[in-house]
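Title: Prediction job returns without error message
Component: structure pipeline
Severity: low
Priority: P3
Assignee: unassigned

Description:
Job completed but the reporter wants confirmation the result is attached to the right record. Sequence as submitted:
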Amino acid sequence: MYVRMYAEQPERLQGWRWGRARPLLALREVFQEHGHVSAWDGETLCLVLEEAGLPNAQVMPAGRSRIDPPPDLAERRDETVYAEALLSGG
């Protein structure tokens, strides 16, 4: 969500993170100032899961999962990438 905002509406992102000299500084703050050490998109997350031996990884929409209840928080759905994969034989 934040990367898309940076690419499509940088002034909006800069407005959300007021006082930042440039939109990229606002984007950096979203990731680094909140304890994150990385950022993922769905395609890359699935690739890493598959390379780790979890085949058929797929991006899942928020609120949908083979796990009941889905392991997500409503307040984070708009800014989270969800992916699931099955263990071999699972």
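Comment from assignee: result matches the submitted record. The CA atoms of residues 14 and 22 lie 7 Å apart.
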